[in-house]
Specification:
By secondary structure, the protein is of the alpha/beta class. The chain contains 13 helices and 19 strands. 26% of the residues lie in helices and 19% in strands. The chain binds zinc ion (ZN).
Length: 449
Amino acid sequence: MPVPTVSFLGGVREIGGNKILIHDGPDRVLFDFGPSFSSRVEEFYVNYLQPRSTSKAKDLLEFDLIPRVRGLYSKEALADADLGYTEPEVSAVFVSHAHADHAGYLDLVDPAIPVYVGEGTRTMLRAIETSTRMKYGDHDWRTFTDRTPIRVGRIEVVPYPVDHSIPFAYGFLVRTSAGTLAYTGDFRHHGPRAADTHAFFDAVARDPVDALLIEGTRAGPDQRKNLSEDGVRTHVDRVLDTTPELAFACTYPRDIDRLLTLYRAAVEADRSLVVSVRTAHLLAQVAPRFPAGDVPVPGQSPGLHVYARKKLVSYLWERPYLDAALSAAEVRTGGSKYLLLLEQSHFTELIDLRPEAGSPFIHSMSEPFTEDDVDAKVMHRWLEHFGLKFRQMHASGHASGPELLELVRASGARAVYPIHTEHPEAFEAAGSSVRLPELNATYPLVGGR
Ligand SMILES: [Zn+2]
């Protein structure tokens, strides 16, 4: 009988875009399915040049930007692509967390294939679909809970919660008919759920697994400064303590931990956090998934306000937040009463807000990889124009290079495959168990190496 195998259909020598296919007899399970952050897609599709909504899979297959897997794609997405539609041959898709590079291609998947996500992730995906143009498609959605095993034919999947820059992120322990595998998803252990990450790696070492598929976003050379989530809080406190003006911050829209850090710091400094309508919607949706009182709810919790940009039309989902929302004039007049979240795409609000020169702009996101980053240049030009003082303070969603090597050594895994990294070779320092996977290659889970 053929041994179970693992194939790497994405996430090889690139950050994001993991597509891990596990094959055991008649059963095939895919882990994560989204575009990578590498420039490969952008070699063909940029700005307004995008795959057609009537044949998205066909248009991506044209340039090998998605894998040629039979029985995975929907009839609609394939259109008349040469791959050809067949009945589902993939038994299930598991999604580790709601970031686009892990879930962003779900709309290509045949609706007959069950898609497994954490309960919280289902809530996040719904909120994103409602409040953005992102679409994940119609599926046989199935939700899993922490550490409750799911059986798909011969394959058993145990989802372990891990700490990451979006809540409801999971790593997986996968038991096949011959051999076990652990897939980390994306993780860190310097955030509020560090204990979850430790518990997952304890389980990996206890098994111990035949193969460990580990993300390495920060492996290799990375000079960028990183704080813990608590460290970000300390830095934000310091800025708010010494600021007599309106303060600004920007961060990733789905990083609930960071939103809470900024909210708590604002309240501590007798300010209110002012968020966009979209962020208000997300907070309202996810709050019930957290212990009562942990996540502030717009319209109910003190110290939280919504900012209303001037718009010609408003969507139905926006309306509950608009009546009590603050205008630019109100935020400008209130000044030191507020910490305003302002993403770069809404910088035009500054023209109305007219902040006092020297007001702080807390950049709570990763620094750009390169010095000629266009968005960063534009951001700094705007900040300079309005005399805003740039303050960098961020906690990454990913473990550092040295931490990754330590985890690999402690795992006792027989084979270690670094993925979701531009520097897989940096893992080789962790020992001889490290193997650099090739894109689209298939490896036996046990023996045969
Ligand atoms: Zn990722």
